[in-house]
Design a protein that fits this description.
Number of helices: 1
Strand content: 5-15%
Structural class: alpha+beta
């Protein structure tokens, strides 16, 4: 299971901002965030990119017949 963990570079090494148990040789993906951008905008864009990957053009369309219980607050917009 993939986990997102905030970290920072102290000039010599990448340090996790919160404790997380890692075994030696654990595979990691590092995303470098531009410093000049607003952090909220960066995380929003990051989330949207991952949603696009999860729900891409190959995602099937689900019909209304598959809805088991209607949401009375949904206005369809």
């Amino acid at each position: 299971m993939a986990v997102n963990i905030r970290a920072h570079f102290d000039g010599q090494q990448i340090l996790l901002d919160e404790p997380f148990p890692l075994q030696p040789n654990t595979k990691l993906i590092v995303t470098v965030l531009p410093e000049e951008e607003d952090e909220r905008d960066v995380w929003t864009r990051f989330g949207l990119q991952n949603l696009e990957r999860a729900y891409g053009p190959d995602e099937p369309d689900y019909s209304l017949e598959l809805v088991k219980r209607a949401n009375p607050d949904y206005d369809g917009r």
